[in-house]
Structure to design on (242 residues):
């Protein structure tokens, strides 16, 4: 479980996140939506402490993230995989080596690395692509490599930062189905930041809407989308100043 209480994050004097309180339950696919600049990606970065924050607490499975030492934080991050919009692959490495990177950083032996990489390649549908480099892959295939890499250390959580935004609609749907399958088969909790409301509606069971760094609304996705609030209608562009 991820429990966020009264989280405030500032850049200079500006509060990008202002008194955020959320609870993300085990096995959730939890969506975070909002206009550009409302703090969605910053919230993800605070969860795994890629960014420090001024006040509040983040508790992940009983660990207070803000109190962890450098060594404790490194161990904690084994349990939290990250997926980025730009894939963040190493161009000079082939698919096998890109997926294997976290395992190599933790000193796993080559036999275990080979077994795990091949297992993950099968999960994401890239068994035939292990020897090729990222430049030879489509956008969807690159994102599948990034997802496989995020899963290498058997995390309990995946933080997905606009993972489908750079993809065409058909490919985005295939990535959504893959994430749903991972969630269902392995019980991995997914926190998904996106501005694509159709994607969020199709995959998430709970949703948080951020406005100006605050929680404007939070609840079950089905209820929010069936009876859109002012916050959601505004996000959809259905409200005007007239």
């Amino acid at each position: 479980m991820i429990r966020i209480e009264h989280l405030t994050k500032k850049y200079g004097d500006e509060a990008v996140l202002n008194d955020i309180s959320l609870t993300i339950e085990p096995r959730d696919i939890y969506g975070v939506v909002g206009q550009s600049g409302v703090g969605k990606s910053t919230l993800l970065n605070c969860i795994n402490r890629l960014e420090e924050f001024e006040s509040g607490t983040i508790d992940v499975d009983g660990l207070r993230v803000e109190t962890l030492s450098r060594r404790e934080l490194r161990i904690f991050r084994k349990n939290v995989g990250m997926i980025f919009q730009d894939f963040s692959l190493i161009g000079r490495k082939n698919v096998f080596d890109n997926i294997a990177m976290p395992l190599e950083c933790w000193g796993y032996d080559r036999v275990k690395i080979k077994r795990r990489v091949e297992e993950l390649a099968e999960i994401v549908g890239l068994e035939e692509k292990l020897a090729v480099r990222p430049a030879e892959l489509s956008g969807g295939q690159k994102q599948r490599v990034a997802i496989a890499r995020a899963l290498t250390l058997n995390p309990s959580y995946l933080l997905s930062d606009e993972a489908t935004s750079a993809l065409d609609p058909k490919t985005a749907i295939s990535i959504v189905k893959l994430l749903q399958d991972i969630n269902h088969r392995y019980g991995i909790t997914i926190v998904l930041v996106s501005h694509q409301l159709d994607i969020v509606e199709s995959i998430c069971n709970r949703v948080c809407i951020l406005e100006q760094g605050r929680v404007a609304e939070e609840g079950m996705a089905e209820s929010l989308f069936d009876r859109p609030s002012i916050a959601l209608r505004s996000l959809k562009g259905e409200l005007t100043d007239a």
